[in-house]
Task: structure prediction
Amino acid sequence: MDIDLSPADIAFQSDVRAFLAENAHKPGEDYAAWRLNWFKLAGEKGGWDIPKWPVEFGGPGWTPTQHYIWEKETASAQTPWDLPFGLSMLAPVLMNYGNAEQQQRFLPDIRERKVNWCQGYSEPNAGSDLANLKTKATLSEDGTHYTVTGTKIWTTLAHIADWIFCLTRTSDSGKKQEGITFLLIPMKQEGIEVKPIITLGGAHSVNMVHLTDVRVPVENRVGEEGKGWTYAKGLLAHERTGLAGISRSLVALENLRKQAATVQRGNGTLLDEPGYRAKLAELEVDLLAAEYTELRSLASAANGSEPGPESSILKLKGTEIQQRIQKLTVEAGGIYSAAWGQSSAGHKFARGGMTGYLSSRAYTIYGGASEVQKDVVAKNVLGLRKS
Amino acid sequence: MNFDLSEEQQLLQDSVARFIEDNYALETRQHLVASDLGFSEPYWQTMADLGWLGINVPEAHGGIGGNQSDTMVLMQALGQGLVLEPIFASAILGTRAIVDGANEDTCTRLLPSLVSGERRLSVAYAEEQARFDLDDVVTRITPQDDGYRISGRKSMVFHAQGSDYLVVSGRSYGGQTDRDGITLLLVDAASEGVRMTSFPTVDGLRASEIEFEDVFVPKAHLLGAEGGGYSLLESIAIDGILALSAEAVGAMEVLYKDTVSYTQEREQFDHPLSDFQVLQHRMVDMFMEYEQCKSLLYRATLEVVQRGHAALKTVHALKYMVGKVGTFIGENAVQLHGGMGVTEELRVGHYFKRLLVIDAQFGNSDYHLAKFAD
Result:
């Protein structure tokens, strides 16, 4: 066991730092152009635009330590916004189960951030019980296309997406998990209707997507008909690891400390109040541990194993930590956290504190509710059976 | 010993429940939230006609002459409906300031118009540097021949927009955090030098930042004693905490009951969610915590009725528990409603928002736990 950075790692770290500093967004610079150029330059470094992709698809082939360094450095630096749907969720499925034609057709656009994807998984009656999905895909008699009808829900950014990757039902016989087929569907076409869902923070990021007799060429099916569940399960594990956000939480905790230090209490600040101080400390202790849980998970992934049950632990702990940071931000803001939107009242950081906290309540629901994650751990790790 | 409601209290509870049933569908409420005023003038008038605005006002001045336990019944029932009208700001906080602090002439002139709904009050006690401390006051009050001048800035004043008068705490003398030297004044909101910026709060109510620039207040509008206003401010805060806690307990009841029904209807894995033991136990915890809060609400309310300010420690205990349990019940109601719980479409999220804001009003749970331990 050894966690010291090797000379090579240290060199890599300075290389990353230099790249991030050099290419930070400059005031007045056109954001969209800067963003695309940033990814292009990162690509020229040797796959830095696609850190998690395998080498054969252009990825950098980093060691776990290098991934860790990258996560840590980018969490506190200014990097362009990026969406996980194409890059981290669909791409691994295409690499593992898509054919060569599909890989050539979709992966380059994902890499260049040219095409936005969204994820068509959950349905009104298929939430935690995802396999219960009912969106029907019927293959035409001549076998050239599917006709898809159904409703997807909680579809993040469907309103700006060009494509949706969808789990559909092609058969009702046998187990629920069988008869699910993985289809790729362009969003901008007749028969697809996107309705916004406004969440508690007041934001519009998720949607309901209605599909009515949408024609999907059979070339847009990934893998075999009826095997979509197997493909999706691997993909869910990727999603869960990505949701833990430990590095970002470390940065968020540091920011929270700075914010709390601006709240004057007598001759000191909020950081001197024993109750608040203890809660911050507890959070920090949990983060110290979670950071190593993540490292252990990275190391085991490096040995070639798929992210397995330990990714469930990370999502559980990581999301809970994110929520606690949000809660402590609300507490630090005091009554000013109650102001909605951009009021001029009170501490600047408090504005939007409560809406951030409210949004964070979804973290333990999406990507597999915490209760379901614990079922997975109970079954797969502890070997427990349900009565 | 008897924890039953009196016949009058039972009638009051029934009348609020009926009003909510008839008028406060979520869609109607959200429509009001989005309106300029943020609540309904016709509803306000109905509340006046039903006598709710005079709950704390002596019968001699046209009110019901109730005490804190009557207010508790009213607020608990209103909390179940997530009502937007400024009863708390005007009929609880404002009225207490007038009844306990104003001279006979002001009482005679003002109280009937508060009871009838014609006029509204709000109380401006918070200042930015004070966090939750009522005695940290830098707004300056200077005496002059026929009255006072007030200068400073008051923060997060709930329902100031549309109020006719503001009850304002200021400092006549003493250091920033001295209890001695605080004075309360009744300020006409239309006075020259009052500048108000209003905005919505997370729970759909309205609050304001208010600047007072050398505002004149006539001598007759002194509330309580000059420099001795802290005890009146504390009375207002005690009534405020009891009322907010009662409202919170009403909201918690809706949340745990909605969760119990939702989990019985929603099926996943070929079972109603309520079949899963882990969720059953969670709901039992929500129920237990709700009952504990209700007990402490009764305890604190009855102690204040009997012993006034001497019951302050129990009031701290109550506000601590309401904040802690409100968060616990709200978070779990949302969690057990799954994705639907985090949308604006179901009512659970709206009750949760109100509980969050209640925790931040008059001191959050950390603050009151520390006060309790002192």
The mean pLDDT of chain B is 97. Chain B touches chain A at residues 126, 128-129, 131-132, 155-156, 197, 199-203, 207, 209, 267-269, 276, 278-279, 327, 331, 334-335, 338-339, 341-345, 349, 352-353, 356-357, 360-361, 364, 366, 369-370 (CB under 8 Å). Chain B has three domains: 7-119, 122-228, 231-373.
